[in-house]
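Q: Joint fold for the lines below.
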Amino acid sequence: MDAQPELALLAKALNEHSLEAILIGNMAAALHGAPVSTIDIDLFFRKTPRNMQKLKLVADALEAVILRPYYPISALFRLHRERDGLQIDFMAHIDGVKSYEGVRGRAGVYQVGGQKLLAASLDDIIRSKRAAGREKDRSVIDILEKTRDEEAIAKERGKRGL
Amino acid sequence: MKKPLPKNGESVAFDKSAALKRESDRALIELIRFRLLLPPEKRLNCLRRKIGLRATCL
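A: Joint structure:
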């Protein structure tokens, strides 16, 4: 299913409530061009009291509720929309990633439905997948590495005007 | 002209597997290049919808 409408709504809600979050995981990889699929939208954010208030407003805007899963993933807040089962995970900690600022500095800015959206670099996505070490994460690393290499080649060609 | 020596089953299987891997890699690179030509917004047909308890579909 096309995630563009949902992602555009999410980006709009984030921008309206000034909640800065970086798209990460397979959805961000897809935005980079990787042929991967996912059942949820993952975002990396700073867990501050102010951002938690903003997160509640974003959940309201998307007609979703905030769930806190019990399984041991640190600082994960899941926005769940009953109507269509949409799942958006906000994470304050990402495996293999040292700091939010580092990921922010390497992230790219994309336009989705006329809204600005930050997406983590493929290097950061690969690093987090490698550190998570789950079978489903390891299985896509090869695809992400090939996409990163092809993206670099395409950028180089773009610079040369080929 | 000399005929090539017949290969045993194991080496034929190995050759086939290597050829399949090369073909699979080539197809993947082609798909990535195709997706890179699309604007980022058009690369998002990636969300799987849950069906029932365990199944999902694109």
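Q: Anything notable?
A: Residues 27 and 33 of chain B are 10 Å apart (CA to CA). The interface with chain A takes residues 25, 28-29, 31-33, 35-36, 38, 40-50, 56, 58 of chain B (CB under 8 Å).
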